[in-house]
Amino acid sequence: MGRDAVWIGTTLISFFFCRHVYLRLGHPLLHPVLWSTLILVAVVSLTRHPISAYCQETAPLVWLLGPAVVAMAVPVWDRRALIAANWRMFTAIICLSLTFSIGTLIVLRPFLGSEFLRALTLKSVTAPVAIGIAREAGLREDLVLVGVMTSGMFGMVAGPMLLSWFGAKGDRGEVGAALGCAAHGLGTARAFEIGPTAGAFASVCMGLSALAYGILLPPLLNSLP
Question: Cα(24)–Cα(197) distance, rounded to whole angstroms?
Fold first, then answer.
């Protein structure tokens, strides 16, 4: 229990310190999830602590993700009529996401390795679904997870800035839908920071996107050499 408390405490201190800096300065590039992750990677590396042991010792924090995900259903339910009225937008965003992923696989295949590109197509899928697809398609799980985490981190930090350049900003549904589809869980968490409407749309889009990828991508990936 001693080591568990040490690593749970280290994780929490790292996150809340970075969160304090983020709230104080307000710059999106200082998001606490990004910097606390980098700090923890550095600490684990410098102490030569096995990553598998760290995962075991901080398991209670991972358990808290369950109630947090369930809590996302509350704003979704409160905005169910608005969500139902925007079904065309959800369909368009998810179709564009799938088209871009498949197009990337086809266009870049001659220039990059097939295995890397096949893993890259799962970058916008939430991690549990991405791992399931990877196992079914025989992909390297480490490559898939790197793509998923990179996409999530980039979308969470830079997504709102990029969207604002195109005029989509504030607590709007399209902002949340784009973040949920492109950056899965981390993007959805960032959308809830923006506002409840953006968060609700992100939750729906993340779920629908995972469903669409889970149904359509495995047969495609299995058909490629």
Answer: 25
What is the extent of the structural domain holding 134?
66-223
Report pTM: 0.81
Confidence at residue 65, expressed as pLDDT on a 0 to 100 scale: 74
For the chain, the average pLDDT equals: 84
Q: Report pLDDT for 225.
A: 59
pLDDT, residue 13, reads 93
Among 46, 63, 80, the domain-final residue is 63
- Going from the C-alpha of 79 to that of each of 30, 74, 82, 119, 159, the distances in angstroms are 30, 9, 5, 35, 23
Looking at per-residue pLDDT, the higher value among 123 and 2 belongs to 123
Closest CA to 101 of 130, 121, 124, 126: 121
For 82, the token pair is: 């608005």
